[in-house]
Amino acid sequence: MKRIYAKEEYCLGCKLCEVYCVTSHSASKDIIKAHKLESITPRLIIESSDNLSFALQCRHCDEADCTRACITGAMQKDEETGVVNYDEERCVGCWTCIMACSFGVIRREQAGKKVIAKCDLCIEEEAPACVTNCPNDALVLAERAEEEGVQ
Amino acid sequence: MSLNYRCPEFLVERVESNCIECQACERQCANEVHFYDQDFEKMRAKDENCVNCHRCVVICPTNAIGIRKHPSEYKENHNWTAGMINNIQKQAESGGVLLSGMGNPTKKKIYWDHLLLNASQVTNPSIDPLREPMELKTFLGRKPSKLEFDEEEQIKDLPPQLELSAPIMFGAMSFGSISINACKSLARAASEVGIIYNTGEGGLHEDLRQYGENTMVQVASGRFGVNQDYLEAGAGIEIKIGQGAKPGIGGHLPGEKVGPEVSKTRMIPEGTDALSPAPHHDIYSIEDLRQLIYALKEATDYQKPVSVKISAVHNSAAIASGIATAGADIITIDGYRGGTGAAPTMIRDNVGIPIELALAAVDDRLREEGLRNQVSLVVSGSVRNSADVVKAIALGADAVYIASAALISLGCHMCQSCYTGKCNWGIATQEPELVKRLNPEVGFERAKNLIEGWAHEIKEMLGGMGINALESLRGNRLMLRGIDLTDRELEILGVKLAGE
Q: What count of other Cβ atoms lies within 10 Å of the Cβ of residue A2?
């Protein structure tokens, strides 16, 4: 499946991926309203140390620990799209998935009734907002056969 | 000194209702202008640090930032301008030489803008380049006085030529003065479009060797990175005598820019200043120049055309004639508006002559002396658009070098602060965190688009004149008319006044 990969050698650490992720997951879809009126948790994290930085999103693992850890079966991997997502109706907010994720890319949602926040690959859009809006093409959505085994 | 006597040059304006405090501006400003104030919970700016490079303006996702000239003005004075007063304040602080980046920005006549092109009407048909073939192919190098063919109908003894798909090359910019990612962008773009880029005098980085066929390797007074491999790696060799932005003086790449890669490429110790002397210490005459030209030809088995680059100065025509007789295959003349990473301001703004006049004078002189076919003529020094290219060709050039325009395509916003090493666009810097801002995958595409766009426009202009091959425009000054020029200027340019 296509996943988001970071080219850390070109990541500016500008965090615009975060800005556009928040906008894309807001109710208003308006960049200013999303930041001033809503309180959305970004679906990605930005790792940085000294001059190195990159954005990290859910890897949508083939055998995802979060789906196995989920006590209600809310976290599922969609067999068709490959996207790991969760059903907010079934989620009881135990946060076991947050503890289970070895990448640390599932976060508590600060707003709305959703309990967790994680990357959904902007599956309804043409491409993820972070990829489309990265000013230096440091994020790509790509099929990488050799990395299909990534857990 | 406790008090800085200078007023800030720029004012950072922020539309508060648009600012989402994402702090991207802060993270992208190497000059430390923007900062987030936790007490006020908003972004603030230190205006005095701003160089107006527009990085924050462009990166701001909500278009909340505008930079403008600081409103504080000196009392009106046409003699003592703000620039002059600021320069004196700077020198009173530092006691040093005033430095500037990029080309001469002063308000002097730009001859390109006083030249107009012709177009066909009724009596001769214009050509539509979208429907009919249009030839921009350009060969640079010595052209034989007569052609002889061998048994296979191939030209006998044709001197080496550089082949260009359009009459444009990327001008000399060394690795050191610009970042490796800027070099990679230009080299790859040149290779994809089928033109030439110039290494400048910084040697040839290993990663760029793959673009050898599209490389002009430069030999300058510092001889950085020059060895047998280097000479053979490119398609041509250029001896740099002078640079339009700073005729008569050498170069100085400060030690802090000489990191491991620059050190390896230039073959000098890490952290040492790379000093290019003002003259070549082995060239004090045309005869000496001839020795170097032939030394380089011998070293490369007469397989590479040798170019000699000089800055446009008072005697350019006579000097060019000497260079042609010395055996150069290409003469490059760099006008006084040519760019630089760093030059003393007084030199940049006051030394040299306009490229348009130098070009016309050199072309005339070489024709008069029957030398014109022996050398190709390349000009540079602020060729700003495709119309400037066409005018240069009509005045007599074979091709042009563009460097400032190429950097602008990569993101440069002409803040003219290259010499600070803090280029926020990742171009004129060696700081790893700034260099990575220019992704060569993005950069090469932009530089390539620029050349392709200009090539389309050149074809349109040629078509309009009823010409279907660039060769028919070379030195065809009848396709030019002057406006707002004196008789003497028109005479030097060899151009008639509009209406004549």
A: 16
User: What is the number of structural domains in chain B?
Assistant: 2
* Domain span including residue B184: 115-497
- Count of CB pairs separated by less than 8 Å, A with B: 56
How is chain A split into domains, by residue range?
Answer: 2-147
Interface test with B, best of A5, A11, A131, A136 (most B CBs within 10 A): A136
**A137–B61 C-beta distance less than 8 A:** no
What pLDDT, on the 0 to 100 scale, is given for residue A109? 86
Q: Does A39 touch chain B (CB under 8 A)?
A: no
Residues of chain B with Cβ-Cβ distance to A138 below 8 Å are 439
Burial group, residue B334, by CB count within 10 angstroms (0-12, 13-18, 19+): buried
Q: What's the rounded mean pLDDT across residues B477-490? A: 98
- All residues of chain B having their beta carbon less than 8 Å from the beta carbon of residue A36 are 20
Same domain, yes or no: B244 and B322: yes
Is residue B308 located within the same domain as residue B426?
yes
- Co-location of B76 and B41 in the same domain: yes
Residue B291 lies in a domain: yes
pLDDT at A151 over 60: no
Residue of B nearest to A8 (CA): B436
For an interface test with B, the pick among A32, A33, A134 (most B C-beta atoms closer than 10 Å) comes out as A32
Query: In the CATH scheme, what is the code of domain A2-147?
Result: 3.30.70.20
Q: How far apart are CA A97 and CA B360, in angstroms?
A: 75
Q: Is residue B373 helix, strand or coil?
A: helix
Question: In whole angstroms, what is the distance from residue B339 CA to residue B341 CA?
Answer: 7
Query: What is the average per-residue pLDDT within B67-83?
Result: 94
Distance CA B193, CA A100 (A): 51
Residue pair B243/B221 in contact (Cβ under 8 Å)? The answer is no
Residues of A in contact with B43 (CB under 8 A): none
Given CB atoms, is A136 within the 8 Å cutoff of chain B? yes
Which of B48, B65, B96 terminates a domain? The answer is B96
Q: List the single residue in A with minimal CA-CA distance to B21.
A: A35
ipTM, 2 dp: 0.90
Chain B: residue whose CA lies nearest to A35 = B20
Q: What percent of chain A has pLDDT over 90?
A: 73
How far apart (Å, rounded) are the C-alpha atoms in residues B469 and A12? 45
Is B195 among the domain residues?
Answer: yes
Residue B400 near residue B379, CB atoms below 8 Å:
yes
pLDDT, one tens digit per residue, over B361-412 is 999 999 999 999 999 999 999 999 999 999 999 999 999 999 999 999 999 9
CA distance A33 to chain B (A): 9
Both B51 and B167 in a single domain?
Answer: no
Q: What's the confidence (pLDDT) of residue B157?
A: 87
Residues B331 and B472 placed together within one structural domain of the fold: yes
CATH number of the domain encompassing residue B170: 3.20.20.70
B344-372 in b/e burial notation, b at 16+ Cβ within 10 A?
A: bbebbbebbbbbbbbbbbbbbbbeeeebb
Selected residues 3-32 of chain A with any CB under 8 Å from a CB in chain B? 7, 9-16, 18-20, 31-32
